[in-house]
Records
---
Amino acid sequence: MHLHESVVIGAGQAGLSASYHLLRLGVGHVLLDANDAAGGAWRHRWDSLTMDDVHGIADLPGSPAPQRDGRRANDVLPGWFEAYEREHGLPVVRPVVVDDVTSDGDLLVVRAGDRRWTTRTLVNATGTWTRPFVPHYPGIERFRGEQLHTVDYPGPEHFRGRRVVVVGGGASAVQLLGEIAPVADTVWVTRRPPVWRTGDFDPEAGRAAVALVEERVRRGLPPASVVSVTGLALREQERAAEHLGAYDRRPMFERVEPDGVRWADGSYEPADVILWATGFRPAVAHLGALRLRSSHGGIRLDGTTAVADPRVQLVGYGPSASTIGANRAGRAAAVTVARQLRAEAA
């Protein structure tokens, strides 16, 4: 049995950052990735998402982010990740879909099918993309039209000439409405009135947003997204949709009917498609056996360290689920792992 000093699960931005810093600190580890090639969740984004559209791609340690332009993000960013892995010799093993992580005395055992990795510490960087969230509303199963989540978004042409109800109050909903409204009839529905950002989203605002989400995970609450506390803003590419009234939001409907949605006041909107831009949940089911969740439903963190099991670091969770916090969290996790290993050896 080979004993690793650390295992990193997930090769998105947070996982790459953690692996880079572990290497620099001399920590022997392996980086397990579920995808069959580099790129993390960016590999699966829709073709119409360009580098001009993506929100705040941060630099990787020692490598500036690609420039903003009209190239497809699902080509450019995976290519950047692939070059980064190669340039820095990151110890990636793929594809590896981790089934679970269990405790074996002082060690942790990572299992994927019939393969095992035994380790002293773990850095979990599995993000959220593989856990799209669709809320349940009465009648949702009887809808005769098409239902899609953001994760399955096929591009605006798919909706041409159709009646589309877009559900969700985040940046993805705003962006997708910007693409769909010029070619289809749209209705925007959110649980709460959207909060529009009036100032620029500068680094100071980004740090403040991360701090708000950090406070939630410090208390063991389920994490909110960083975007949920930054507010929304329209870009030039969404102005056409604005002029069409796409951002005249309606409150959340009460139920879904076979051919549309109905509100509590009896008003009705016919629909061919319901597009659920309702976000994601952390992909941490494989950590269930470690019993990391608090009584509040979230995983309580001290920095990046799971309070319930300090052998485990979480990056790409809560405040580091966006690129704003991912790199900082990767470095913090690596430093903590190195410190723990030194303490064990002393």
---
Amino acid sequence: MTDKLNWDELDFSYTEVPYRWRAYWKDGEWYKAGLETDPQLPIREAAPIVNYGQGVFEGNKAYGTKDGKVVLFRPDEFGERLNRGARRMAMPEVPVEEFVRACKEVVKANRDYVPPYGHNGAAMFIRPMLLGVGDHIQVSAAEEYLFTIYVSPVGPLYKGGLVPHNYIIDHEHDRVAADGTGNIKATANYASTLATAKKIRESGYDDVLYLDPATHTKIDEFSSANFFAIEKDTNKFVTPKSDTVLPSITKKSLLWLAENRLGLEVEEGDIKVDEFDKYAEAGAMGNAAIISPAASVTYKDDRHVFYSETEVGPVSKALYKELTAIQFGEVEAPEGWIVDVDED
């Protein structure tokens, strides 16, 4: 089937590949771990994931590098975050070393579907999921669990590459509840944003940005990505610090790169919705888009334009270039960030 794939024309959508990884949990232990070929999930109608949303998931990528390798980006960090979500949702943890091994095995099994280096940022998307399954009609934690990973070749989240986007703040709804599950990758966190996302895209916006649910005065995050801004006078890289924001691996990486490779001051703190004038650049950051610069953010009747509606700001551009160069093997990576799928 790979001969039918045009690597340069891939969009961010699902392509079925031959193998996925699965492991099953019951009576206190994981069993039957390995590759499977059936894309249909073995889930019963009374499963807690279906009835009560007991599930967490992750999103990472595998990259075809400049020297012909296939690598994962910080897979241990994604495994640790999955387990933080598992603890919050009363689910069994997946040992991080097993999480990384499973990611490597499923990518290797579908190696022919990993986009080669040099095709408009195309990569292999990796979706691990931990789901409450089995027949369990009560509102309580499941007694059986499924850990599964599927993969798919994908292109960039937004066609056109690194270009500015127009965002809008939803001031009528919260993404998550204060003191809720916003800081884990729980399935229900994303379902609650779908209606707004559909509405704003029909109006020409690219994504929706949410305020903190406690005071509605500070920026929290986008429907599926973290927010960042660059101060005008200092070039300081600022991103919200909030218990309702998902601790993004991309954010963690960009904070380190901004400070250690670009020499910028960095800060996790409050970004007030009425103080956009302080910032020269802003945008979204996450695994899917890496960086999606903001041309504008609209809040109620006010549309604030950042660096440019047509050009990407210099700091956003430099950070995007540095991180993607690491992922595709063009520059040396910080220790532990890159894992070759063929190495033990």
---
Amino acid sequence: MKAMRLYEYGKPLRLEDVPVPKVSGEEVLIKIGGAGVCHSDLHLIEGHWKDIIPTTLPITPGHENAGWVAEVGDKVEGFKPGDPVLVPGGWTCEACRYCRSGRFELCNTPVMMGLVGADGGYAEYVYYKTYRGLVKIDGLDPVEAAPFADAALTPYSAIKKVLGRLYPDSFAVVVGVGGLGQYAIQFLKVLAPETNIIAVDVSDRKLEIAASLGASYLVNSRKVNVLEEVVGKVTGGRGVDVVLDFVGAETLSTDVYMLCKGGILVPVGLSGQTFTLPVFNTIIFEYEIVGSFYGGFNELQEIVALAKKGRIKSFIKRFRLEEANEALEALKKGEIEGRAVLVP
């Protein structure tokens, strides 16, 4: 089968022929219909995480995958060749304290497809360890559904962590309204429909998309002072209840100053290394910092249910599998308005 493989950090992926994975027991082989291109893939390929994540090269990137069941092991139940499925971004040990409490994203020994322990979906086929993790997506286009595995799941889980603070007429800021931020706005409209949504980005086009999805206020951080605009003009000096940041270190140090007393900052974007907090304000005003990494199987099923009801809109730009390097470069330059998806 064809696959785009990473052999050396900082170098383009190579298109090559590799063996099709064999499956047995509970294992499943999936024919890829679409593989989302994520900023995490860029971080991996450019070597940003080489001292943090124990990746073994060569590896096939790609943790946002959907397609059709191609082959099943002899212990697989409820799935057959031809079934359309969404593939989670990895699997866990199911035995550590975190897995047993349902917090699979905190597993002590996770396998993250395309990052650690298994090849991902920048290929014609992908292996998955057990049918128990797959989500059926009957009636949905795998190309449209592929980003649900991360770009949708991650903001969905982050929002559910802070739903108790999003009461009618509260304020939520979404920093970075690219692939993840666009889903975040839609989930806020579904889960907290009376919350005022403030979208912050450097792209007027992405802010236009945010408005079409339900954002009440638009802030271009290249053109105005974000704090003056959000805290002063939009909230009248009160501050916001929740900030969901899908960028990272470069914006987090500003985010905290947008919070009202008792406000919550949710860092989701993985760019950068560190950010600073005002100690006095954080303590006196009881700010909360809630990290949010990923999500679980039930949340993935909920997202698929919303998609089947037509409650989620995806902005997809399709690339052929062999155009993976071009897709990654376009993502790096900020030319992808929503999500790039590779189609074998």
---
Amino acid sequence: MLAYQLTEWNKWPSLREVDAPVAGPGEVVVAVAASGICHSDLHVMSGPPRRWDLPFTLGHETTGWVSELGQGVRGLSVGDPVAIYGCWGCGTCRNCTTTAENMCITKHESAPAGGGLGYNGGMAELMLVPDPRWLVPALGLDLVQAAPLLDAALTPYHAIMRALPLLRPGSRTVLYGAGGLGHLAIQILRALTATEIVVVDRAQSKLDHARELGVNETYLFEDVDSLVSSIGRRSVDVVFDTVGSDDTVLVSSRVVRPGGHICLIGRAGSLEVAFRKVTAEISVISTFWGTRNELAEVLDLARHGALTAAVEQFALADIAAAYERLEHGEMRGRGVMVPGLG
């Protein structure tokens, strides 16, 4: 079968002919319906070499149908629609046993994160899942539309749930970035809270999309001082930064109110947090993905029509061109690879 694999660090992946996976004891093979195209993949391609075995297949936002069950697997049937949870932890530590494998205690930070991030992922026709606990039921969902939800919706959902006590009626929230993660974060905020939503982006087309989704205010990011003036100093309860740059972090530190909350979702710039260096009583956190239970909740939101990804479909043969478009900021919403397309 064909698979889009990273074979060397700091080089673009390539389509390669590989052996189709076979389910061993306790394993499941999934026939891929779709796999999301994520910025994280670009960081893996161009970032420093990692302690991951090469080659491996990209694709960590993958949906599909159970194709083969290994010996001993219970509770699943061939043909079941599933979403593959992307964080593969140890399964036994205190966090993993509560489905928070994104915060696995025993797994070293340099170890592979999961399918598509160090282990073979979903940019192929078939994907091997080593443990059925990573399969979340996806009955009643369009599996192509659902694929981006596994990261691009789960990540902001996890961040929003951590800040939920501050997102009361009358609160004001700033969201940096209205692209792949941002357009889904807007929908989650609207579904779960009554906060006023302020969106900042460098692309007017993405701000126009944010307006279509019902946000209260939009601002084009041109420079730090004018943006702070437009939003207002100490006028914001919560900031979600899906961009992660020194400029966005600097603006956040100036617009958040005392007692407010800054959540760094993107690959964040630096912020010196010290007494009298930042606004009093603020909390600054980083987040990583989300829990398996939260993924089930995200899929429920989609099932009930509260969450819809803006999706552009690509055939497996066109996946390299799709990543180039993503790299140049030319993709609205989320790109998705569909094996049978074209």
